[in-house]
Write a sequence for this structure.
DNA sequence: CTTTAACCGAGACGGTACGTCGTGTCTTAAC
DNA sequence: GTTAAGACACGACGTACCGTCTCGGTTAAAG
């Protein structure tokens, strides 16, 4: 795994420092919870999903869910990441621009179909509190932003990209256009969009 | 009024065709509802806001709210538009690019401060159903999108703008960057963003 | 009309003394209200019946109902009396005991079928306030009680009945047994009951 | 306990057959609900009583009430029985007639004061549906009816009572007169009634 | 091999809000 | 000046979930 890390269901690494006493956390329960969420999301919106429904579907006590995740957004985000699975790191390309395009295509492929919708619903739900918003960013969006930002900085340094552009703004425009398009009611990203965005990214970035 | 039209609280114009029977809708109630929402939003998120709380604050029955608006998003959106009030149409500028910049600045000024946060929360809440999403778009976002899209088309036709760019994508990138920035947890649009976006818009659009 | 008098729907007789100004009270409305109630009661309990439903079914404003009757019990009671219609006074019989039996049979015949159920529901609804209880008694039950009480007193005086019995208690036992039976869930008064009650009344009353 | 059994607040005895899982029912909540009802009934009619008011007064969630009782009638009936408490079985008397009189006095003492009014209001409320009516009968009225009916049968068998009378009708006349008197608006059963009824019962029953 | 600690399922708990229904009052235009 | 239509403030309904709690019952490491 690389970009799509999973904070909650691959929990704190540092639990080996002292062997925990008592019954260990049940890996089976975790998986059945995440699977339940994914199955329920096929027929339900994130908003309509309830912790109680998840618990019932997973055959698990509500307490077990609350013990591992602070709220619905956190579970659903983890379930999405769990379903997306490990995405290999991208190979470095000949030009930085090509790397950027690869990164964009990879991101958009991630959100093809139902997943894009779910991601956007998670992002929307996350708006309700500072805490969940941070959770969403640190566990998902930030890594994509950083990867792209690093590439842009790299391109600026090696003279491939214009230097008079704000890296942050470029990132906002690129990811923003994807998010905004999905939020506008588009069921999914159509081919026209998928092809045009990388082209337009060139216009912004290249000298 | 131009852009910020208000669907619900300036109701159907065509009510003159048949004189309405029964007690007419109370304008006082409408206003106290919208005012209540705006007052409550000073201390509460849209998510945390409840129809019951609005009714209580406004000194109004819940039924009265449900009679006029289908759901919370609709009331809150109307309350925002009511608070924003009438925004005059922009004067035409010397160049189309200048018109675009004016439009952007006007939009961003609209969302300065608390309003941006509220708008984004409305947009987030609207994601939960197709119906509310449509409501949000048709009553707010669409008019801004169309204004910008028309300007871009105009620029393409008069030779000021590049023709190899998708108008839709350009709109997505510009409004998307604003929305995305606000959704990232930024309390408000800072000066750097406000100044950089129009510049970058030029890069995308101009030949 | 004799026993089953109708207080509300045969209103003030003296409306002819001065020509009333404005639109006259609509006799049609009264009748359509009472008919609506009777039609609705075929498929609904008194409890489930609402003033709003009556108004709608009758094609009448709620205000009209409230102007004529103080509450639901009053309308329904009137509707029942209206449906029962005029019951002729009974002919005097050879013996007082026979008169009592005639009176009982007449009362029980009145309550055969759906009407008994409705009467009992009205009586039940009337329990909720002193006001409606009085209304029910004065407009329905009292006259039956008085008729019976007078007969018993007559029987005592002419030496036919025992004198050591409380007239009030006898009335309570006789009408009470009917009411109580109907309140126990019996759909209607069965033949056994209808035949046994007069016989038992004899036992109580005769020397 | 004998006659005044309590279905709901002395729940199923046979819960030992399978050890109950989950958090056990809170006895405290039960009691505070029943107490709340009794306190509220001092100042309110059964009709005017609302589940919401009970929940608030008892410091309990509405769900807790709905979990244990199907409707208002059921709670109020239980509260009445709870307040009446355990009534010892009556000692057998020398004659069956004396047993009947004891039973009647015991029943009428039960309904002295506010309790009679409440009982009648419950009975009235119960009329609104078959379900609540059954509830009322099976949890209260039936046991009194059966006790009396058994005594009457006993009296018939041992030659003390007349055999040409319908037991069911006798029961209806006796309990009916009490219920009917209370329904007529009498605040309570006065001494005259309380003394006359057993005497008249003798007339009906004895040879 | 018993204790102890943390987990688990089940599900009851006090709450909040939902969207609906009915109440009795009011305010219009129509007749 | 009454009527129908219907909007109004209000209060309660019964339901759905929330996040917390309290049970009996595992499951392991520590004593």
């Amino acid at each position: 795994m690389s970009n799509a890390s999973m904070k909650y269901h691959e929990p704190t690494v540092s639990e080996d420092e002292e062997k925990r006493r008592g019954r260990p956390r049940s890996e089976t329960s975790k998986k059945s919870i995440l699977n339940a969420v994914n199955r329920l999301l096929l027929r339900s919106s994130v908003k309509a999903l309830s912790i109680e429904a998840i618990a019932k579907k997973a055959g698990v006590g509500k307490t077990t869910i609350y013990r591992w995740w602070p709220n619905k957004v956190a579970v659903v985000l983890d379930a999405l990441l769990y379903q997306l699975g490990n995405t290999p790191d991208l190979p470095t390309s000949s030009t930085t621009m090509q790397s950027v395009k690869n990164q964009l295509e990879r991101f958009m492929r991630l959100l093809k179909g139902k997943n894009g919708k779910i991601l956007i619903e998670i992002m929307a739900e996350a708006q309700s509190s500072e805490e969940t918003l941070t959770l969403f960013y640190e566990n998902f969006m930030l890594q994509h932003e950083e990867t792209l930002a690093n590439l842009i900085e790299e391109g600026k340094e090696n003279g491939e990209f214009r230097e008079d552009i704000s890296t942050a703004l470029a990132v906002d425009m690129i990811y923003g256009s994807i998010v905004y398009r999905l939020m506008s009611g588009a069921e999914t990203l159509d081919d026209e969009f998928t092809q045009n965005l990388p082209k337009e990214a060139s216009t912004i970035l290249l000298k």
Residues 80 and 120 of chain D are 11 Å apart (CA to CA). The radius of gyration of chain D is 19 Å.
